[in-house]
């Protein structure tokens, strides 16, 4: 199942979002796949990206939406019950970066899981933008994510990725 960040990033392009809206608007019958492909190579790339994110699939020559992908992605990435890390977030934003390392590692794991998809590459600007959605000091949080091994960074700082175990 795709990561929520992969789903959101798949819909971040206005042309892909328009294609997805067209498929959703067509209802359960979807739209003819040949109609989508008639839009050229770019339309085919958009279709592939939406399909890779699990948002659409082809059935009997038609492109149909897969609405259950949202619930499945959220269910797989839901925080565990009674997690002390939950107390550090208010309305989805981190209120303070904990001093205790064990708790800070829990926060870093939570933020990595919520904001970054494994296998994706991010620029520093994209990392900062994502972090700003939940914390006001992106540079310090980004530094902790790299230093504690949650994100890897190219030596020139051009590309960030979720670290693999």
Automatic annotation (TrEMBL):
Positions of the DUF2087 domain: 93-161
UniProt xrefs under Pfam families: DUF2087
Protein name in the entry: DUF2087 domain-containing protein
Source species: Nocardiopsis codii
Lineage, opening ranks: Bacteria, Bacillati, Actinomycetota, Actinomycetes, Streptosporangiales
């Amino acid at each position: 199942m795709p990561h929520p960040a992969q789903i959101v990033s798949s819909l971040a392009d206005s042309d892909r979002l328009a294609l997805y809206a067209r498929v959703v608007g067509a209802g359960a019958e979807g739209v003819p796949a040949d109609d989508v492909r008639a839009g050229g190579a770019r339309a085919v790339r958009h279709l592939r990206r939406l399909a890779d994110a699990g948002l659409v699939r082809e059935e009997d020559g038609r492109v149909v939406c897969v609405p259950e992908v949202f619930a499945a992605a959220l269910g797989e990435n839901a925080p565990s019950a009674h997690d002390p890390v939950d107390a550090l977030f208010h309305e989805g934003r981190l209120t303070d970066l904990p001093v205790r390392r064990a708790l800070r590692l829990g926060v870093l794991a939570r933020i990595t899981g919520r904001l970054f998809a494994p296998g994706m590459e991010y620029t520093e600007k994209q990392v900062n933008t994502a972090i700003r959605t939940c914390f006001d000091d992106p540079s310090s949080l980004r530094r902790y994510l790299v230093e504690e091994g949650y994100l890897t960074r190219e030596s020139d700082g051009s590309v960030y990725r979720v670290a693999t175990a």
